[in-house]
UniProtKB/TrEMBL annotation:
Matches recorded under InterPro entries: Amidohydrolase, Aminobenzoyl-glu_utiliz_pB, Bact_exopeptidase_dim_dom, Peptidase_M20, Peptidase_M20/M20A_hydrolases, Peptidase_M20_dimer
NCBIfam families: amidohydrolases
Classification via Pfam families: M20_dimer, Peptidase_M20
N-terminal signal peptide: 1-19
Protein name, as recorded: Amidohydrolase
Keywords from the UniProt entry: Hydrolase, Signal
Lineage top rank: taxon: Bacteria
Length: 479
């Protein structure tokens, strides 16, 4: 069954602005509304490209072209990453950075239909909404640039095009390269099923591909001559799964077998498993990772195989900055959430029917902003924004680009991200980030307070060292 919701792609409706906004703010918000359809067309193109980490050639080029056309100076291929770039406007201090992501997730595709309908023309999908992330952040950077010109505001607005967030840690290499060293504050956002601007942390994460090497033989006529690399992988997985009992409750360890052999009657001489190891504390995440390595070493010894591993990425836990988050929350509350029209509500209701517990979903929550919270212990996922937050005061928000109740990394998230529901959430984010950046440009005391908070949280002896060490960017990790 295919359901068409063509009205979801109608023009973005501009709602009257509240009197709570000042003249310059009103002009910025009106500009974003006027260009909302254009910004969404950029996001939709990236949604269609569906390019995975470090392979986002078209997506990166499109955003670079968009920013260059608006007068930004673009430096491409930074940090030895072909799809990473920095686009700047202005001169001097303060320097306010805005992050933009654009990578898709492999192995999951979906049309913009509210029922399951896989796409066959691509092998990945924007199940985490990074197409909206990149386009929405660029929209905010452009709006702030115009405001700076109109009001003769000094300083620099800088857009960071950051590839491969999904397990490739693109930002970590950019941090390691020193690209954030002169920045006073960084702003980011992420698609979600709700609207919030908490001062919240995340899970630190270290990942690696473990590769086992054995000896091929006929599995029936000469098994004694073989040594199965797959046995090594399975033995490792078994030991790691037993280890879960003896890890702290907050630990998260998961894996996928990426290579397991080609035919049952051929003992595989090569097998590979890809592991993520997470914890709210980056030091404990690193310790847990070392234990996983020991499991791999034991598995190789016991199965008569050999093993090596390649660290793919490592990301710090987010360091929340309350001084900045309070401002972001205030601005999000002023902008408000996402209001559905009749067609969008019908789409959302169909999506809800496919969710695990539809009776608990409240569609009205898309229009609400969650009360402000300070959450210092990370839960849920990980992000390479974490590394940025340890070197420069960083603040973020989430907006309802998915239907309430939707999980990220799902086909339902891809579907909504291809419709005006995703567009509306993206515009809420662009407006909130713009207002926050404007406030930071005009408030040096706030920037000083945020920097002091960062320094106190890190401790006086903090020295940044990437969890992934000195390895080069893994440009082929999705091959």
């Amino acid at each position: 069954m295919k359901i068409a919701f063509l009205l979801l792609f109608s023009s973005f409706i501009v709602l009257p602005l509240s009197a709570q906004f000042s003249g310059p703010e009103t002009k910025v918000l009106q500009e974003i509304d006027r260009n909302a359809d254009d910004y969404f067309q950029v996001a939709k193109k990236i949604w269609d490209f569906a390019e995975v980490g470090y392979q986002e050639t078209q997506s990166s080029a499109l955003l670079q072209e968009m920013l260059a056309a608006e007068g930004f100076t673009v430096e491409a291929g930074v940090a030895e990453i072909p799809t990473a770039f920095v686009a700047s406007f202005g001169n001097g201090k303060p320097v306010i950075g805005i992050l933009g992501e654009f990578d898709a997730l492999p192995g999951i595709t979906q049309t913009s239909s509210p029922v399951r309908e896989e796409r066959t023309d691509v092998h990945a999908g924007h199940a985490c909404g990074h197409h909206l992330f990149g386009a929405g952040s660029a929209a905010a950077a452009i709006a702030v640039k115009h405001w700076m010109e109109d009001n003769q505001v000094s300083g620099t607005v800088r857009f960071y095009g950051t590839p491969a967030e999904e397990g490739g840690a693109g930002k970590v290499y950019m941090v390691r390269e020193g690209l954030f060293d002169d920045v006073d504050a960084v702003i980011h956002w992420h698609p979600a099923d709700k609207n919030s601007a908490h001062a919240a942390s995340s899970l630190a994460n270290k990942s690696a591909k473990f590769r086992f090497y054995g000896v091929s033989a006929h599995a029936a006529s000469a098994p004694q001559n073989g040594r199965s690399a797959l046995d090594g992988v399975e033995a490792m997985n078994y030991m790691v799964n037993m280890m879960r009992e003896h890890m702290t409750m907050e630990s998260r360890t998961h894996y996928v077998i990426t290579r397991g052999g080609n035919a049952p009657n051929v003992i595989p001489d090569f097998a590979e498993v890809f592991y993520y190891v997470r914890h709210p504390d980056m030091e404990i995440a690193a310790q847990n990772f070392d234990r996983v390595v020991k499991c791999a070493e034991g598995a190789a010894l016991g199965t008569g195989t050999t093993m090596d591993y390649e660290v793919i990425h490592g990301a710090y836990n987010l360091l929340p900055n309350v001084a900045l988050a309070e401002i972001m929350h205030e601005n999000l509350s002023r902008v408000g959430g996402v209001e559905y029209n009749a067609e969008e509500k019908a789409f959302a209701e169909t999506i809800v029917e496919s969710l695990p517990d539809p009776g608990k979903v409240d569609l009205a929550s898309a229009g609400e902003v969650e009360p402000f919270e300070v959450i210092r212990k990370g839960t849920g996922g990980s992000t390479d924004v974490g590394d940025v937050s340890w070197v420069v005061p960083t603040v973020g928000l989430r907006t309802a680009t998915y239907v309430p109740g939707t999980s990220a990394h799902s086909w339902q998230a891809i579907a909504a991200g291809g419709t005006s529901i995703g567009q509306k959430g993206m515009i809420v984010a662009a407006k909130t980030m713009s207002l926050t950046a404007m406030e930071l440009f005009q408030n040096p005391e706030l920037l000083q307070k945020a920097r002091q908070e960062l320094t106190e949280q890190r401790g006086k002896n903090f020295e940044y060292q990437a969890l992934l060490g000195d390895r080069e960017p893994p440009l082929d990790y999705r091959d």
